[in-house]
Amino acid sequence: KCPNFSAHVRVTGGPGSGKGTQCQKIVETFGFKHLSAGELLRREIESNSEYWSQILDTIKEGRIVPSEVTVKLIQKEMESSDNCKFLIDGFPRTEENRIAFEQLDLVFCQMIFVLVVEHVIMLVLMQTGLEPNVVLFFDCPEEEMVKRVLNRNEGRVDDNIDTVKKRLKVFENLNLPVIDYYSKRGKLHRINAVGTEDEIFKQVRPIFSSCDY
Ligand code: UP5
Ligand code: MG
After folding, report:
1. DSSP letter at 3?
2. Does the UniProt entry include the keyword Kinase (predicted)?
3. d(C-alpha 73, C-alpha 98), whole Å
């Protein structure tokens, strides 16, 4: 339905940095389709799907679910959506996640250079995958993230001090390099995630107001 996935925003940040809360506001204000990778995985656990127990064990340990599982869930949601403006929350968590997703459905034939060099015809196909237009990074100090997660009280199996410590380590070791990658590509918008929800949204709003999304 959405062949080009034309408006495609990724939302990153540590556990409890406020990704979900701000995504809600972006959806209300700018009409995006919110896809939270964590929510999709929790839904799989609840529906007793094929991998539910492996997903549950992985989330309890704060580790990362294999890319093929998460990518398939996100892809399914994107393919069945009427709304082509995607807000992908909490994904990719690792470089491997990023590459797995961006190589999905490679679109060949964007550009075909035909070079004729001494009777040799070389076709060079340029590939374009699913790269985001914009990446938001909710930058929040660890102690604030821990406080928010432990106060949440929604019964999440990973909202306890032991798992939070593991989630923070995984964030630092595996997710920060992905954030750094997007920064080098000039796609990253760093948001100071401390303050009230509205104060934080004041930094987010202009990013969307100033583009066609
Ligand atoms: N809150 C929000 N904003 C606030 C503010 N400005 N001031 C004070 N409080 C604020 O917010 C957290 C809490 O803080 C809430 O109670 C909120 O009211 C309050 P929220 O908006 O929920 O923060 P968020 O960043 O979304 O935190 P979340 O815990 O969801 O982040 P995680 O990244 O840890 O969780 P996620 O659901 O994305 O992933 C869970 C697990 O799934 C991962 O640990 C991993 O095991 C697995 N996973 C994968 O394996 N692969 C994936 O691709 C994705 C997930
Ligand atoms: Mg969340």
Report:
1. T
2. yes
3. 14
Residue ranges of the alpha helices (H) in the chain?
19-30, 37-46, 52-60, 67-79, 95-102, 142-152, 161-170, 176-184, 197-209
**44 CB less than 6 Å from ligand 1?**
no
Q: How far is the CA of 21 from the centre of ligand 1 (A)?
A: 9
Torsion of CA 131, 86, 164, 178, to 10 degrees: 10
Q: Which of 211, 189, 210 is nearest to 200 (CA)?
A: 189
Q: Give 176-206 pLDDT, tens digit per residue.
A: 999 999 999 999 999 999 999 999 999 999 9
- Maximal CA-CA distance, the chain: 70
For residue 104, the CA-to-ligand 1 centroid distance in Å is: 26
Q: How far is the CA of 14 from the centre of ligand 1 (A)?
A: 7
139, pLDDT greater than 80: yes
Smallest Cα–Cα separation from 23: which of 12, 5, 194?
A: 12
Contacts of 76 (CB under 8 A, 6+ apart): none
> Cβ(33)–Cβ(81) under 8 Å?
yes
Task: Name which of 34, 187, 13 is nearest 93 in CA terms.
Answer: 13
